[in-house]
């Protein structure tokens, strides 16, 4: 009776020892898997902290322009569009220069004397001490005379071969008395100030 109990106890102890060894044997595998998983997670976390992901989008700290504002237009090459000066240029095309011109018409207004002029050319007369006028082409441009502009006239608008001083009103009267076909045959040297006004007018002697 005693032997049987001892055998039963031995058998039970052996069975319990086998189950315990089986559980202990399987434990390292699970623990190892968990440990490897932790190492992998720790490694990924370390890389993320040490170096930013190259694929992550880059955001600028500069605020975007408001929708209501438009950026200035630039020409190719980054340069700003040039300022339009056509209006100022047409208002005073010969400012600060001297020009040889034909005068087609002249008038006196409330604010001064106006001339319709067109660039021309001059060359010495082959036989006389006079000038030959080579008419220009294109439209006439109206320019204004300064109030104190000097006027010098010679034949055919003046009374003599040598230029003499006349008033602006006398010049307008003598010019408009000429026929439209005769006016282009007379040439004038004009001087302009910085505002494009005529400060000096001298007609050339023509025979």
Topology:
Layout: H1 2-50, H2 86-91, E1 98-109, E2 112-119, E3 121-124, E4 131-134, E5 141-153, E6 164-166, H3 168-177, E7 188-192, E8 198-203
Parallel strand pairs: 5-8
Antiparallel strand pairs: 1-2, 1-7, 2-5, 3-4, 5-6, 7-8
Q: What does the model show?
A:
With 207 residues, the protein is α+β, with helices and mostly antiparallel strands. Helix content is 31%, strand content 27%. It is built from three helices and eight strands. It has helices at residues 2-50, 86-91, 168-177, and strands spanning 98-109, 112-119, 121-124, 131-134, 141-153, 164-166, 188-192, 198-203. The strands form two sheets. The protein has a five-stranded mixed β-barrel with strand order 1-2-5-8-7. Strands 3-4 form a two-stranded antiparallel sheet. A hairpin with a 2-residue loop joins strand 1 (98-109) and strand 2 (112-119). The radius of gyration is 52 Å and the shape is globular. Mean pLDDT is 71; it is low at 1-89.
Distance between the termini: 169 Å
What is the makeup of the main sheet?
5 strands, mixed, barrel
Oligomeric form: single chain
Q: Which term fits the overall shape?
A: globular
Number of helices: 3
Over all CA atoms, what is the radius of gyration?
A: 52 Å
User: N-to-C SSE series?
Assistant: HHEEEEEEHEE
The proportion of residues in beta strands is 25-35%
Which percent bin holds the helix content?
25-40%
- Class by alpha and beta content: alpha+beta
Give the low-confidence spans: 1-89
Kindly report the average pLDDT value.
Answer: 71
Number of strands: 8
In the sheet with the most strands, the strands line up as: 1-2-5-8-7
